[in-house]
Amino acid sequence: MKKVMAILEKEFKSFFYSPLAYVVLALFTALTGVFFYLYLSSFVEASFMDAIRSQQYRQPPQKLNVNLMLIRPYFWNIALITLFTLPIVTMRLFSEEKKQGTVELLYTTPLSSTQIILGKFLAGLTLSAALLIPTMFFQGLLFVYGDPEFWPVVSGYIGLLLMGSAFISMGLFISTTTENQIIAAIGGFALALLLWIIGWGANFAGPSLAPLLEYVSIINHFEDFAQGVVDTSHLAYYLLFTFVGIYFSLKSVESVKWRA
Amino acid sequence: MIEVKDLTRYYGQKRAISNVSFNVQKGEILGLLGPNAAGKTTTMRILTCYMPPTSGTATIGGYDIFEQSMEVRTITGYLPENPPIYPDLEVNDYLKFVAKIKGVEKNRIEKEVDAAVEKASLGDVRNRVIGKLSKGYKQRVGLAQSLINNPQVVILDEPTVGLDPKQIIEIRELIRSLKGEHTIILSSHILPEVEQTCERVVIISNGRVVAEDTPENLTTRMRGSERVQLEVEGDEDAIKKALGSLPDILSTRIETKDNGVCKVVVESKSDLRKEMAKSLVDSNLGLLELHPDKATLEDIFLHLTTKEEGA
After folding, report:
1. Were A218 and a residue from A129, A195, B141, B299 both cysteine, which residue would form a disulfide, CB within 3.0 to 4.6 Å?
2. Measured between alpha carbons, how far is residue B126 from residues A138, B82, B94, B114 in Å?
3. Cα–Cα distance between B203 and B38 in angstroms, integer?
4. pLDDT in tens, B108-130
5. Predicted confidence (pLDDT) at residue A260 exceeds the cutoff of 50
């Protein structure tokens, strides 16, 4: 475990000593910030219109639901931005080691493949969690000036983290297969996008295929989390996905070693 | 300390090394000498457990490289041809990281890093980012990395390649200073380099060990000696006697004997082909074949020396 932590720490250091970290953080914060602003503006406008209407018709104002109108769609947006950002985080995890030749260090020191992969996976997961911090700040503002329901926000973040861990395990696997970071990023992104939109095919697929496509689609499982429901079947999907990703990464690392 | 036995490794259909065997004593510096693509890196990668051999075994400090790989890795330090450095990290952070993955106890990490920095004379650049250092310093960082956790065995793959002459001298001195404390294998394609640093040399060519000796012996053996291969029909002793009577003969070796036909290798100080033929025929022995031996060793040696002059 100490060695796993050492790898995690090293990944963090090289990530934050390079400009990449700041580009990713800035982009993620800017995009999620813009989306937050847009949703907030439209929500304020809707509340404003409602207030005017209630005065005109002399009815008590309807209380608009922040969770429904703002927080839930906002989570969807963060999820989408995650899809674009995480491949950039995962692309370097293994490809860079291969390119720099530092795999020779990792493979010839007393480290097991499991320790290497776990350290790298955890580093990716922690980074993806760090990306979410600014959005927590945005949503915190809602609690200062209003009173949204708290738990749906928590479950939304749990969902984002779980989906993030699925993306990261997949990105890590792709990163183990190539020494080219660009290929790793594009591959990770393409696969994530495919898993995202595959559920749309369910509308046109036959009755036997449709449930399968819906189940495989990575975003379908996020829906409940965004609504404030933590369903064990969706939890299981993400955990299984992550496990498979990590397992494949391990096998990939070991097979490369044997083929060399 | 290190026993290598019949290592063979294929990359797909291509054979990189075959039946490589040698031993290294404790505290010794052994040079693996050979032209490029001879199989030096492959041999070292197998010894450091980077990849398994196709067949054959090796033990380091009594541990089997395949069965007890973690133990082998613990007592071995390795500097690959390209130093395995992270350009974004500072020298100090990098060495600490290496100490941690080598399993150095927490309270000893500082000490180990200090010792490695000291040995590789990295004091001036400890807090610099590795990517910004010169090639010579990067190489030294790589060397410092291999010395962390005070390994019994240090394996260095072409440690002076790409350095300027002053840096080469520094690195060679550094390697010599490690002698005794560590058992060292280093590879090179430059003969004078191994002459200066190593006590014993194994020459590899086309994936095979072609010679193993001290650098001095190799040099004298190769300089000013002629090798001739003969096929002679007749009795071993008679052959030896007929050839031994000639002056300037250094050695006569019967390689194989098959149906009364001996394959003989003769080393001499000068070209004695005429005299040998005459002497054999005079002794009523059947001389079937005689040709100068452009042995692989000589070719390689020539190759290595000319290479060095060019460099």
Report:
1. A195
2. 41, 20, 10, 10
3. 9
4. 999 999 999 988 888 899 999 99
5. no
Rg (CA), chain A: 21
**CA–CA separation, A27 and A32 (whole Å):** 8
CA distance A95 to A171: 11
Nearest chain A alpha carbon to B16: A260
Q: Determine the residue of chain A that is closest to B129 in CA distance.
A: A17
Chain B positions touching A22 (Cβ under 8 A) are none
How many independent structural domains does chain A possess? Answer: 1
- A174-205 in b/e form (b: 16+ CB < 10 A) is bbbbbbebeebbebbbebbeebbebbeebeee
Give the nearest chain A residue to B42 (CA atoms): A260
CA-closest candidate to residue B9, choices B60, B59, B44: B44
Smallest CA–CA separation between B254 and chain A, in Å? 41
Structural contact between residues B122 and B144, judged by C-beta atoms closer than 8 angstroms: yes
Burial track A50-76 (b if 16+ CB lie within 10 A, e otherwise): eeeeeeeeeeeeeebebbeebbbebbe
Helices (H), chain B: 40-47, 69-75, 91-101, 109-119, 135-147, 165-177, 191-197, 215-222, 236-244, 273-282, 296-310
Give this complex's ipTM.
0.86
Q: Give the position of tokens 């002629």.
A: B226
Rounded Cα gap, residues B2 and A143, in angstroms: 68
**A153: containing domain:** 2-259
pLDDT tens digits, A62-99:
777 888 888 889 999 999 999 999 999 999 999 999 99
All structural domains of chain B: 2-220 (3.40.50.300), 224-298 (3.30.70.260)
What does the buried/exposed string (b/e) look like for A118-138 if buried means 16 or more CB atoms within 10 Å of the residue's CB? bbbbbbbbebbebbbebbeeb
Q: Which amino acid is at B28?
A: E
Contacts of A7 in chain B (CB under 8 A): 101
CB burial of A8-35 (b: ≥16 within 10 Å; e: otherwise) equals bbbbbbbbebbebbeebbeebbebbeeb
AA letter at A15 = F
Cα–Cα distance, B306 to A141 (Å, whole number): 75
Element (H, E) at A246: helix A232-259
